[in-house]
Amino acid sequence: xxxxxxxxxxxxxxxxxxxxxxxxxxxxxxxxxxxxxxxxxxxxxxxxxxxxxxxxxxxxxxxxxxxxxxxxxxxxxxxxxxxxxxxxxxxxxxxxxxxxxxxxxxxxxxxxxxxxxxxxxxxxxxxxxxxxxxxxxxxxxxxxxxxxxxxxxxxxxxxxxxxxxxxxxxxxxxxxxxxxxxxxxxxxxxxxxxxxxxxxxxxxxxxxxxxxxxxxxxxxxxxxxxxxxxxxxxxxxxxxxxxxxxxxxxxxxxxxxxxxxxxxxxxxxxxxxxxxxxxxxxxxxxxxxxxxxxxxxxxxxxxxxxxxxxxxxxxxxxxxxxxxxxxxxxxxxxxxxx
Length: 338
Ligand SMILES: Cc1cc2nc3c(=O)[nH]c(=O)nc-3n(C[C@H](O)[C@H](O)[C@H](O)COP(=O)(O)OP(=O)(O)OC[C@H]3O[C@@H](n4cnc5c(N)ncnc54)[C@H](O)[C@@H]3O)c2cc1C
Known about the structure:
- The structure is a single chain.
- The mean pLDDT is 97.
- This protein folds into 3 domains: 3-69, Uridine Diphospho-n-acetylenolpyruvylglucosamine Reductase, domain 2, CATH 3.30.43.10; 74-226, 2-Layer Sandwich (Uridine Diphospho-n-acetylenolpyruvylglucosamine Reductase, domain 3); 234-337, UDP-N-acetylenolpyruvoylglucosamine reductase, C-terminal domain (Uridine Diphospho-n-acetylenolpyruvylglucosamine Reductase, domain 1).
- The protein is of the alpha+beta class.
- The protein has a 5-stranded antiparallel β-sheet with strand order 6-7-12-10-11, with no helix packed on it. It has a 4-stranded mixed β-sheet with strand order 1-2-5-3. The protein has a 4-stranded antiparallel β-sheet with strand order 13-19-18-17, with helices on one face.
- The radius of gyration is 21 Å and the shape is globular.
- The chain starts with a strand and ends with a strand.
- The protein has 7 helices and 20 strands.
């Protein structure tokens, strides 16, 4: 297997910062992983799996081993009149998979179109958008244990999915290389139009006549109007998660800002819109050097050119400090900082 030394990672993340890694290896199959394990490479510290790099910020050169996930291929493992179990290898590109399934009329992932990552990363933070999370369609996944060299199957419960979270981001962080994910897609789709702008678009339509393709096209229009295309403007999507706070705190903020969007959760908790909080602190469209907040969506930090990872991290800390000062709410990063 080819090991590249002192390898430039700039094209391998959507924030496009100029950093190098000590070693870089393309993983194209489970056999590659077995070979790397047998030769002791997987003991390298630090070591990191990279998908499309659309949720990662490198703040410095990486002094270890990057495993670039490029295991391609997919197969139907079960098909009935109602559903399809589709096993997809982790190096497949997520947006292409969604488009292909939507084109075939299979339902379940149409709301998750245009999320620019690879399939293997989708369960890591349980990607979500427009009322749907990928956990809703994951039947199981197969992962290579980099500490024992064995393959393990995880069912949905074992993945311990949460809001932008899973067991692979918490208890088992860094241990498993996801090699494939099996999705349960529906041939008789039940659409999720709970997101308000979607409801509005389809308000005069009979839900039974709306197709998954129409939903996906509507979402693409909404996304393209407010999210920057990372191929044109470097970014990593939402930089922060939407904070979930005690209801008392949300009520206190709403007294002063009655227009604040909020979403009731279980257990006397309330989810707030991080983008709204950031916007209220005056950050929307602000730029310092080559780092800025996107002018159409305050949750997105943008690299306008040659910003370094440290510049972006520093800028994000200033944003967080001002949100804490104004609202008493601490934002948690969604982007993984290395
Ligand atoms: C414009 C834009 C819009 C976005 N919109 C959304 C959105 O609507 N919803 C959403 O949830 N996210 C969104 N994202 C974030 C991001 O696209 C997703 O989190 C995506 O799943 C990351 O995939 P990736 O392949 O780029 O992963 P990376 O960024 O390469 O990696 C992310 C994490 O997963 C790990 N990882 C990657 N592959 C594997 C593997 N095979 N096995 C084990 N670990 C692995 C990495 O080590 C890292 O910890 C957006 C990003 C951008 C740039």
